[in-house]
Amino acid sequence: MIQVEIELSAKYAAIETNNGSYIVKHHTKDEGGRLVTLIEEPESICCSCKEFEFSGILCRHAIRVLLMKNYFHVPSRYLPFRWRRESSLIPKSNHMANCNDGSSIEFRSLVQCLEYESEKTKERKQVATRGLEKLIQEIKGMPKSHKDLTDLELNVPNNDDYDVGNPIVSKAKGRPKGSRAKRGVEASKKTLHCHVSNCGGTDHDS
């Protein structure tokens, strides 16, 4: 998205005003335009279109001013950490490279969110710094490897020490055989009996 803004910035003209700001407008328009203010120390730029404040994307008007002032890179504060190439900014340890359960991805996402939110105000950065210092000291006091774990964590009972019985047989699901209610033609049929004296059998006729 920022690459598109860089490409479109070539179609705009920037005119410096008396107070050090710039009027940036499309090359086909004589009137209107956007007001861009650039503060070189520290590197800060803002545009009246408020595109960066709204979407986090540095607008073409601001980029046009940066190009005119011979900036060969976008100030880092306008490239959110979460958008940068992870491979070039975050050193990958063996643990992070071999971690496929998503925990390292979640961890890096939290770190990026912390940096993004803390950069908004000086007070936020101070709170984040104090919290991180406390957290780092707490983590340093924790075991560094499995060898440092407590006996409680290492002495896991062996399953071979226990007798495992057969599982309980579950009862069959559904209605027991013979208890189904008969309906229709099936219910209207009567059992026939043999009419021979002292017989009364049902498996044959007379």
Structure description:
By secondary structure, the protein is of the alpha+beta class. Among the domains are: 2-78, no CATH class; 83-140, no CATH class. The chain is built from nine helices and four strands. A four-stranded antiparallel β-sheet has the order 1-2-3-4, covered by helices on one side. A hairpin with a 7-residue loop joins strand 2 and strand 3. The longest helix has 19 residues, at 122-140.
Task: Output the keywords.
alpha+beta, 206 residues, elongated, 4-stranded antiparallel β-sheet, 4 strands, 9 helices
Topology overview:
Elements: H1 2-8, E1 12-16, E2 22-26, E3 34-39, E4 44-47, H2 51-55, H3 60-68, H4 86-89, H5 94-98, H6 103-118, H7 122-140, H8 151-154, H9 184-188
Antiparallel strand pairs: 1-2, 2-3, 3-4
Helix pairs in contact: 6-7
